[in-house]
Each structure stands twice: as structure tokens, then as C-alpha cells.
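WP5 quarterly update. Target: Branched-chain amino acid transporter AzlD. Source organism: Dorea formicigenerans. Length: 107 aa.
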Amino acid sequence: MTLTQQIITIGLCVLGTMTTRFLPFLVFRENRETPKFIQYVGKFLPSAVFGMLVVYCLRNVNILQGTHGIPEFISILVTAGLHIWKHQMLVSIAGGTICYILLLHFC
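C-alpha cells (predicted):
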């Protein structure tokens, strides 16, 4: 990549990032009510994304071979338990990930 191409690429990345950061504030002004569809998406999209991540993580688990999916199942239980206990997404994800890594290396 030439220097000119690198500068253009960085500029486009900055433009894209700044647009996604400022566009919601320009589209949804303080003095207007947020549309019902946006409220609906804001309410249910995080759960849908989390569900999609679970499906993505379990797509290659074979219960007929190897560990039979036991580390994955235990890690899902730990993640769910941490989320029910703490209600913190970062704690839940980090705890489940750490549990899964430890189970893979020590079992």
C-alpha cells in the first residue's frame, strides 16, 4: 500500500467512526421523542446478539466425540449464573470465558 492509500484508508476509517458516533445525536434530537421502533430495537437487540453469540460458539460442538460438549455446557451455566447473580454483562462473559479456558486446559 502506498502512503497515499494509507492516508485515504485512515481518513475513511476516521470518517466512518465519527459518522456512527455523531449520527444518532443528529437524527434523534433531545426535544423529540425517540421512535417506538428504535425503542423496541434498543430493548431486544442486546439479547438477540447475545443469543447469536451463543449459537456461533456452539456451532462446532460435537456431543459424540471428545469431551462431549461438557466444558461448553459448564461454561454456559457459569455465564448464566454470573449474569443472574451480578447482572453485569462483562463479568458474565469474562467469567464464562475463563471457566471454559480452564476446563479445556486442565480437563
